[in-house]
Amino acid sequence: MLNKCRLNFLETSYKVNRKSIISFLKIFSPDLEKSIVVGDFILFCIMKTPLKFLFKFGIPKNISTKVFNLNFPSPVIAASFKDHTASLLFWQLIGTGAVTFKTLLNEPSKGNHRPRVTEVQIDGQKHLFNSLGLPNKGIKHFVQNNTLQKISFQERPIGISIGGNSDDEYLQNLKTIERFVQNSGSKNIFYEINVSCPNTLNGKTLNQDIERLINLLSSLKEITKSPIFVKIAPESTEDFLLKLGNYVNMQNKMGITLGNTKSLSKRDLNLSSKIFNNQSGGLSGPKLYDSTLNSVKFLSSRFNFPIIATGGASDYKSVRNLLQNGASLVGMAAQLVFNPFEIAKINRDLSNEV
Ligand SMILES: Cc1cc2nc3c(=O)[nH]c(=O)nc-3n(C[C@H](O)[C@H](O)[C@H](O)COP(=O)(O)O)c2cc1C
Fold first, then answer.
1. Residue whose CB lies within 8 A of the most ligand 1 atoms, among 40, 80, 116, 335, for a mutation test
2. Each residue of 5-24: pLDDT tens digit?
3. Into which CATH architecture does domain 59-353 fall?
4. C or N: which end of the chain has fewer Cβ atoms within 10 Å?
5. In sequence order, what are the residues at sequence separation of 6 or more whose Cβ sits closer than 8 angstroms to the Cβ of residue 65?
6. Whole-model pTM above 0.85?
7. Which of 119, 284, 346 to mutate to test the pocket of ligand 1 (most atoms within 8 A of CB)?
């Protein structure tokens, strides 16, 4: 009862504060990223104080799941979209079974021109639309700042998303990170190979060339013994899914993450240049759910490897449905922005169902 009151209080406070910050900053600028920076700063300060324990919700023991050698206390995990360490800890306190660090590139990069992220309403539901273009502090920063240690929480698995502007860069990036992981003694790592970013020049080329992708995955596998998930686009064709599925099925410790944001042009969403600078971007949120579910069904009815279902999951019903249809884990991004406290409710409801 006490936990329920605390959850309701935190959920309401989060929504009210978020709305207030966005409405206030909108007076000065239409760029939503300013609110994100302010929100991140407030969270960073709170997480430095004992107040952070207010966010801590236990995960019921009966919903844990094992994927390869990794134990996830909850099957709901944070998808790769954030490199802000306080946020990654915050979500684990509330109850995600793991977090996935935002896609890393070798060199620091500022990403695309702002404004490049906005909220859109579709069918009465909130979504995110972004063309960040993988802004990044680079691998050196990740290693030198001991990021892994900063986001480790109760030995929960940590996903690290690897990107690259060329096949060679993917290989070099994984080599560098793997060396760091080995030296740090971290055992609960999985990698996600992002071949489906719609917002960089070459972000999706591997998702359109199955032979090149398979060659790359074969080389990446040689570098690490940790599990590798390939993160693909929601637009992937059945032919592509079949070919990739056939390959992944034959590998040890490999799976598929389905999927990234959905490519759309800003005209599809009637966005003005004032709130969104780039011509196209990637959609996140409930609208992706049907396509995620269909692809999960397609793959799980043919193959046995683990699937991380990412795209449109927002509540207990959507998570349960993805798990019942063959997903091993469910990744979330947009819902963690709109209401991260939903995670504690999903864990509770999953537990009651077992
Ligand atoms: C602002 C933002 C940034 C993102 N950055 C990344 C990224 O760096 N790497 C990646 O693989 N996916 C990235 N994504 C995609 C998410 O991980 C996820 O695949 C997508 O949002 C669909 O899930 P959702 O409907 O739960 O949001 C990003 C999404 C958003 C909204």
1. 80
2. 999 999 999 999 999 999 99
3. Alpha-Beta Barrel (3.20)
4. N
5. 71, 72, 74, 75, 97, 328, 329
6. yes
7. 284
